[in-house]
Amino acid sequence: MLDKMINIIGIKDLITKLQKIIVFFSFSILLSNIPEYRVVAEWEPALGTMIRWPLGIPSSLVVELADDDTLYVLVETSYQQNQATNNFNNWGVDLSKVIFISTDTYSHWTRDHGPQFVIGENYWKVVNQHFNGYPVENGCDEVEIQCDEEMILYDCVGNEFCNNQPQYADEGYDCYINNESCADFNNDGQIMDWLGDGYCDDGEWGLNFMCDEFSQDCGDCGGTINDVNDYCERDKILGNRKQITGRPFSSDYRGWSEDDDTNIDFANQLDWDILNLPLYWTGGNFMTDGYGMGFSTQLMVNENNISNEAFKSIINQHLNIDDYIILANPNAESIQHIDCMAKLVNPETIIIKQVPESSPEYDCIEEFAQSFSELNTFYNRPFKIHRIFCPEINGGSWETNPVAAYTNSLILNNKVLVPQYGISQDFNALSVYRQAMPGYEVIGFEGSGNGTWYAEDALHCRTMGIFDPNMIHISHKSIRTEELLSNSNIVFEIEVIDYNINTDIESVILYWKYSAEDGPFNELYLEDGGEINKYFAIVSSLNSNSLIDYYITATNELGNVASHPNAGWHTFNTLNTILGDLNDDGLINIQDIVLLVNLALNNQFQEIADINEDSAIDVLDIVLLVQFILEI
């Protein structure tokens, strides 16, 4: 009877039209357009992983990387390739999944010198950035040791340094320069400084003493010496600047320049186009949401010796990153790589390390985490932030305040590979990832031998994802409990781009279920959203106070499938109360409509009756409530 009455007065048709209008209008509010071209994010569909031989990772990780995906292995010689092949065979690696890339390499940190990728419709390029090793910088003002004014000096290119706070002081150095202010500060019976110690200070070690003021480093770099300050006439003591196994410095015959051409050789072998970026842009100090937002610490800019504004301008021009966040260096002294401090696991969720309160860097890391709480995502809402406790560890001898680098993990399609340190907190680290990324396979790997993990150097540093240029990409502003207006007529909106330009999208499906149920997932085909590449679906009614799991798939004509999220599912809780249940009987029916009409006629207001939440009770609320009843 009610259905017939509604048809007579035309409300049912009106409801359908209003529903379409609301959905089409909401696309401009809820769903931001995918950028025309963009840097690919780590969680997107990958072909495999780039590593280097000789290895810097344990063999168990190699086996896992090759289990479902391709291994791109950098080798310098046929001997290295044969050596790798023999070992892979012994470990049970399927060699059909291994592609060897012939290139010179100096280090196994493929994350840092390896390729990033820029994708667009009919656009795919391998980024070839500059790479020159690992400068160390101070940060975290709270723990920075103050420098007496008379000790402040400047090197040949203007870099400030504190003369009585030299790096490698534990090797016996008292000062950088043995001038009138220097003394035997470590009481070892001698004064040791950087000039004339056998190491060439032309900037490679962080400071440049190749000028007359510093006597051309007293001949450590060769050439003529003009010792105007008599630095070189003082007792010469050869130094021993520790050759770091975790981050080796260049020697006389090999150097970082060998890593600098890796991306060119890789792109040429795969016949992919190259995008030359005129910047030092170390991969471990960069993360992106995949939608034009990037993150690095201040060291990244300083390495290029330009202003923040100039750095951002070059990045935007070449990579279309229009929102580059430069964060203060949070460590007292380190390479300040962001992947040892934070991990974006999707465009709106980030895992940030938490150190013990006893750590000298505790306040700085908390300020670093707070920076993300003040930012909005691509979908113009706050990030979901998870904290991961990183206890103190016995790090490398070069590391200051070392803690477990649990954020230094690798996302590879449906897996998350997390460094483990053989300590009790390892299990909690895996649990944080499982909470932040429900449905992903989270696997821990302990380091050993050449694959030992450190505080500034772990699993992520030594692996680099290689992505699919023909991927299907789904953009979706996931449902959040705090944004729900009711448990009815929940709109799911997505944008899909198939980067394989020779195919079309065949179907887009929403899968959802109550978390308490074993399954199966309900299926709902999404409809055309009225704009190119955009789709929507409406779930008419969900139980109150229930946890919902859902994911979305897009399939093209070739049968290729993409999911959102890339693996696992999204979750949200429905509301405790039922909007529109005016008589509070747990049901929405004709009785609630009668009460709602009375409120409207008497110009009265109740929040539970304000269906469209416009702070007024009127015919629009009645229409929406009738719509809900019809769809039950």
Written overview of the protein:
21% of the residues lie in helices and 25% in strands. Residues 1-9, 14-30 and 243-253 have low confidence and may be disordered. The strands form nine sheets. Strands 24, 25, 28, 29 and 30 form a five-stranded antiparallel beta sheet that branches. It has a four-stranded mixed beta sheet with strand order 1-5-6-10, with helices on both faces. It contains twelve helices and 30 strands. The longest helix has 20 residues, at 11-30. By secondary structure, the chain is α+β, with helices and mostly antiparallel strands.
Question: How do you describe this structure in short?
Answer:
The protein is of the alpha+beta class and 632 residues long. Helices cover 21% and strands 25% of the residues.
Which keywords apply here?
single chain, about 625 residues, alpha+beta, five-stranded antiparallel beta sheet, four-stranded mixed beta sheet, elongated, disordered N terminus
Radius of gyration: 30 Å
Proportion in helices: 10-25%
Instruction: Output mean pLDDT.
Output: 89
The largest sheet, given as strand count, sense and whether it forms a barrel, is: 5 strands, antiparallel
Stretches where pLDDT is under 50 for at least 5 consecutive residues are 1-9, 14-30, 243-253
Structural class estimated from helices and strands: alpha+beta
**Fraction in beta strands:** 15-25%
**What overall geometry do the principal axes of the alpha carbons give?**
elongated
How far apart the termini lie comes to 16 Å
Q: Count of helical segments?
A: 12
State the total count of DSSP E strands: 30
